[in-house]
Amino acid sequence: MESRKAPVGWLAVALMLLVWAGQTHAATVVVEATMVGGFGRFVPDSVVIHPGDTVQWKNMEMFMAHTSTSGTGSADPNSGVLWNSGSLGPGGTFKHVFNVSGAFDYYCIFHELEGMFGKVVVCDCPFPGDADGGGSVDVLDVVHMVDAAFSGGEIVQDPLCQIARDDFNSDGSVDVLDVVAAVDNAFSGGPGPVNPC
Hints:
By secondary structure, this protein is an alpha+beta fold. 20% of the residues lie in helices and 25% in strands. The strands form 3 sheets. Strands 2-1-4-6 form a 4-stranded mixed beta sheet, with no helix packed on it. A 4-stranded mixed beta sheet has the order 3-8-7-5, with no helix packed on it. A two-stranded antiparallel ribbon has the order 9-10. The longest helix has 15 residues, at 8-22.
């Protein structure tokens, strides 16, 4: 019987595709620096991203400069420490990669007095349904969900991501649907939770 061997090149291509498919790809979120009702504004003024994602600020004005400067305003002693775009002329852009979870305030130096402020929330969200933060939905999470759904037990709220960890289906409440979905997931490999971030 004759054996067939795959060419080494095809094996290398297959291996590269498997590695590429397993990687997560960072996103870029665009925030426009513009004027709204005669006042400087960031649109949107708040964004939620994941660690490794990039925020790109773009000046949408034809005759006005803006900045994106980290901090809560010029009185903040850490103003501009994390990032400072400098003056962005018409059509100018500035990018910053956020690698650490947290909430990051920023403002426009030129339009601070007009209230031109924004916030970037970098959210490394837990899985909904993972009430104990263990990285998966298991028996302990199901027990916690039953307690929360049927006996008024504590609902575990993630403070940064603003989600109820025991709200498995992310519908805004902890109820029998969450318990059923979590049991299915924990014991039979059912569909995983919906991550709202």
